[in-house]
Amino acid sequence: MPPPRPDTVKYKIHHHTVYRYAEPVRRSVHEVRLEPRSGPLQTVHRWQLVAPGNPSAARDGFGNIVHNFTVAGPTGTISIEASGEVEVLPPHGDLDRDGHHAFCDAPPPGESRVSPLYFLGSTPLTSAPPEMQAFAAPFLAAGHEIPALLALAQGIAERVRYKPNTTDVGTSAAEAFSLGSGVCQDQAQVMVAACRALGIPARYVSGYFYDPAAIEMASHAWADVCLDPAREVWCSVDITHGCLTDERHIRLAVGRDYASAAPVRGILEGGSGETLEVDVSITPLFT
């Protein structure tokens, strides 16, 4: 592994998830997207995932690293721990006329992925009702250059105000847009839904955002928008913070919506009375 470059930021990350159950789980099957991959925006220097059983790793059609494991049970607790070091690379790649950076995310030799055009199709979580299309259309009437996408992101952040505990992981973009509030997941899905409805490929991104002033760290979400499907050129827009992603963003997974990029998904037999504890720590190792 090459030594870190002096103009990058390297983070030490620890993500611990614990599920507890009033009634023991008899058997469960889990799918986990908690290992970041190296790519044009970051380099993963080391990573490990600790989970029950013997997790198997594979790549999905989006290029994510996916772990699967089965818990034979019975158990009242399921713990998943992911940790490692990720170096976030400085902006590079294509520049638009305003000096904004885009990046190419074509698969490396030997790896197959879905076409960017696959991210044109809506899902139950990312369908755009007529009122959302009417809201977004003026922002992109002259094209979907990066300044227009940033303006749309700002418009969405004002229309879907950040307000915790008003939505959950099953809330659709249409529901959050109608409600007028939500969290980063909802804002990202509204951005994705709006772009797709106007014929622009867009995908949901899960990851982390480093904020030195934050009392508690948490997972974050934003959107990738495809600027050139033929060349697989994208830009990555953080709707919540109104910016392109930068040295504060660490990517975990991409998908068509939250459900296909969720950090943890599972099917359980038994296990009623579930409670969830998540602890995330992000420490910069140098700047």
Question: In words, what does this structure look like?
Answer:
The protein is an alpha+beta fold. A hairpin with a 5-residue loop joins strand 3 (56-59) and strand 4. Strands 1, 2, 3, 4, 5, 14 and 15 form a 7-stranded antiparallel β-sheet that branches. Strands 6, 9, 10, 11, 12 and 13 form a 6-stranded antiparallel β-sheet that branches. A two-stranded parallel sheet has the order 7-8. Helices cover 16% and strands 42% of the residues. It has helices at 130-136, 146-159, 173-179, 184-197, 258-261, and strands spanning 9-35, 42-50, 56-59, 65-71, 75-88, 103-104, 161-162, 181-182, 202-209, 219-228, 233-238, 243-244, 249-255, 264-270, 274-286. Helix 3 crosses helix 4. Mean pLDDT is 92; it is low at 1-5. It is globular, with a radius of gyration of 19 Å. The longest helix has 14 residues, at 146-159. The chain has 2 domains: 9-88 and 263-286, Immunoglobulin-like (Sandwich), CATH 2.60.40.2250; 103-261, C8orf32 fold (Roll).
